[in-house]
Write a structure and sequence with these properties.
By secondary structure, the chain is α/β, with parallel strands linked by helices. It has two domains: about 1-35 and about 70-130, no CATH class; about 135-250, Serine Threonine Protein Phosphatase 5, Tetratricopeptide repeat. The protein has seven helices and seven strands. The strands form two sheets. Strands 3-2-1-7-6 form a five-stranded mixed beta sheet. It has a two-stranded antiparallel sheet with strand order 4-5. α3 (about 135-165) runs antiparallel to α4, α4 (about 170-190) packs antiparallel against α5 and α5 (about 195-210) runs antiparallel to α6 (about 215-230).
């Protein structure tokens, strides 16, 4: 089946190889090597280079044998334009067919019955660099969002700690601490930090303990403790936090049972 090999160079080094067929395009990445290691050693890339289809080789017995060579073209392209070209080759089957037919038909004028050819492409810097404004806006939005989330998390941590300290004596403070912990949990999910998410769940468990809801608090503590212990790199601070809240759970539950018995 006919195909075309595109050999790409950048800064006199072999960058990658693309095998273009009618059905697919294969990206064959190779190690960096000097241009002269590739083949004929001709470094003229100002236009097209036509390499002879057959050369006569004299064997030891004096016979002449025709040695076949693939046809090679050489040209230099703007790196940005070439990236667009490769992307369309990957996405459009019809475009691949048109490109392959174009080059094979072009070769028929020089070498009949040629089914395979090699295109040597040297990438050059574009005259003007293209600024990706859309990506810049996205990154700017993500940075601002992360900054605001970190700021909100800091404020909620301070406020939640104050209400949690008062929650041992006032039930409405314990309820407010629970609401703040839920809000912290939502922000932690947005931040995408598993350790922060686990700590926020433990804050919720602490609020449940202050409201005498021991069973759901126990379930949260046990779940987070097992997750921390089974982790590839256990978080010692999180493990100690689980043990500390577990001790508070046992103490508050014992005190609650004593009061209810009386």
């Amino acid at each position: 089946m006919a195909h075309m090999k595109i050999v790409v160079y950048s800064n006199n080094c072999l960058w990658e190889q693309l095998i273009v067929g009618y059905d697919t395009i294969v990206n064959k990445v190779t190690e960096m090597k000097r241009r002269e290691d590739f083949g004929d050693g001709d470094n003229d890339i100002g236009g097209f280079e036509i390499v002879s289809h057959r050369d006569l080789v004299i064997q030891s017995d004096g016979d002449q044998v025709a040695k076949k060579h693939r046809t090679k073209f050489s040209l230099s392209l703007n790196s940005l334009i070439f990236s667009y070209f490769v992307k369309v080759l990957q996405c459009s089957g019809q475009f691949r067919i048109c490109v392959l037919d174009y080059w094979l038909n072009k070769m028929k004028y020089h070498i009949p019955n040629c089914k395979n050819l090699t295109l040597k492409v040297t990438l050059v810097e574009p005259p003007n660099q293209v600024l990706d404004y859309n990506w810049c806006h996205r990154i700017n939005y993500m940075v601002m969002e992360r900054s605001e989330l970190d700021n909100a998390m800091s404020w909620l941590s301070t406020l939640g700690g104050a209400y949690s300290a008062l929650g041992d004596h006032f039930s409405h403070c314990a309820e407010m601490a629970g609401r703040i912990s839920i809000r912290q949990f939502q922000l932690a999910l947005r931040l995408g930090d598993p350790s922060t998410v686990a700590r926020c769940k433990l804050y919720i468990a602490l609020s449940l303990i202050q409201n005498y809801r021991f069973k759901p608090a126990q379930h949260i503590i046990e779940t987070q403790y097992h997750l921390a212990m089974d982790s590839a790199s256990p978080d010692t601070r999180l493990i100690r936090m689980c043990r500390g809240i577990w001790s508070k759970l046992r103490y508050e539950r014992s005190q609650y049972l004593k009061r209810t018995k009386v």
